[in-house]
Amino acid sequence: MNRLLKLLPIQFPIIQAGMVYVSGGKLAAASAEAGILGVIGAGSMKPEVLDQQIKKALTLTSHPERLAVNVPLLYEKTSEQIEVALRNGIKIFITSAGSPKTWTKILKEKGCVVMHVTSSPELAAKCEDAGVDAVIAEGFEAGGHNGRDEITTMVLIPQVVVAVKIPVIAAGGIGDGKGIAAALALGASGVQLGTRYLATQESSAHPAFKKLIVEAKSDATMLMMKKIVPVRLVKNPFFEEVKKLEDQNATKEELEALLGKGRARAGMLNGDLVSGELEAGQIAALVKDLPTVSELTQRLLQEYEIAVSTLPKKL
Ligand SMILES: Cc1cc2nc3c(=O)[nH]c(=O)nc-3n(C[C@H](O)[C@H](O)[C@H](O)COP(=O)(O)O)c2cc1C
Predict the structure, then answer these.
(1) What pLDDT digit, counting tens, does each position of 213-260 carry?
(2) Residue 16: beta bridge partners?
(3) Tell me: the pLDDT tens digits for 155-171?
(4) For the chain: N or C, fewer Cβ within 10 A?
(5) CA distances (Å), 103 to each of 93, 108, 123, 267, in order?
(6) Whether residue 100 has pLDDT greater than 90
(7) Full DSSP string of 171-220
(8) Which domains does the chain have, with CATH numbers?
(9) Can you give the pTM of this predicted structure?
């Protein structure tokens, strides 16, 4: 049996990624209904907003056991966010952007499943040492915050599979069933898809942002802001401002000043495509429509079967 299906109470080894401003209760509930892991991205949420979003998800799905919360460990409200999630009965956590040592033991003692996002085999081994149940190995292609070392998913997954004994979930640059088949061929037990689930009916991304993703070309994104926290951005006017500063060798402080406050909310949630920050992965170029989560998930399963059945048995 697939190792991720042993670990998580889901039907298919697919995780709808946690995404700031994009994966609220509605998206997570639709994912849980579709048989995959539905992840609420707590990163952008004050504890009371997270509370509302979990409660909303609980009213929208008959599979609360398939709901998870993603907690990036770089914000000051982490412990309150985790407390809120636990109080609402969440049993599955995906931590990211910080040390896996900080929360894993505490969450495991409370009977939770913990997965941590990593961008290198060395860090994956540290996650295993910290006691996580699985690692999500995220390549350079991925949307959102990213590793500094630019290791692509294709190269990262086989190395992580060798580095750890726990299940490996591949993330970054997967947007269809062929991509899922490729990730499993590389040794992953499952996949986490972000950008592809961003472009669905149920995500809370602004319609103008979703449209931009559907129209994206292969060169639509770039990894920026390595001096602060590396993040893959859509090339909009805000990106051009960041790029100009970086080309002038701007300091960390100058970049932080440009970033200011509320840029990500303005771009992704409120649809300010000019001065807002827009995070997406390279796979945006493959996204051509805005299906429902159920339609997309069924399509991924069919594409996977076709991809596997059409592979030559011998080279
Ligand atoms: C808009 C957006 C926001 C994201 N926000 C988060 C986040 O809050 N926490 C996190 O761990 N990863 C975040 N990510 C990364 C995703 O969880 C996921 O690993 C990534 O999207 C996978 O790559 P893909 O976009 O190529 O599918 C974000 C990605 C996107 C596209």
Answers:
(1) 999 999 999 999 998 889 999 999 999 999 999 999 999 999 888 887
(2) 38, 193
(3) 999 999 999 999 999 99
(4) C
(5) 10, 9, 16, 30
(6) yes
(7) ESS--SHHHHHHHHHTT-SEEEESHHHHSSTTS-S-HHHHHHHHT--TTS
(8) 3-205+289-306 (3.20.20.70), 207-283 (no CATH)
(9) 0.98
Q: How far is the CA of 201 from the centre of ligand 1 (A)?
A: 17
pLDDT digit string, tens, across residues 113-155: 999 999 999 999 999 999 999 999 999 999 999 999 999 999 9
- Mutation probe of ligand 1 site: the residue of 14, 20, 204 with most atoms within 8 A of C-beta: 20
Residue closest to 116 by CA, chosen among 129, 102, 127, 131 = 127
Which residue(s) pair with 281 in the sheet? none
Of 14, 15, 16, 19, the residue with max ligand 1 atoms within 8 A of its CB, to mutate for a pocket test, comes to: 19
Ligand 1 site: residues with CB under 6 angstroms? 17-20, 22, 41, 43, 70, 72, 96, 117, 138, 141-144, 171-174, 192-196, 198, 268, 279-281, 283
Please give the Cα distance from 269 to 266 (Å, whole number): 6
Mapped onto helix, strand or coil, the DSSP state of residue 152 is: coil
Q: Output the residue whose Cα is nearest ligand 1's atom 21.
A: 194
- To which residue do tokens 């840029």 refer? 263
User: Among the atoms of ligand 1, which is closest to the Cα of residue 278?
Assistant: 1
Mean pLDDT of all residues in 204-220: 98
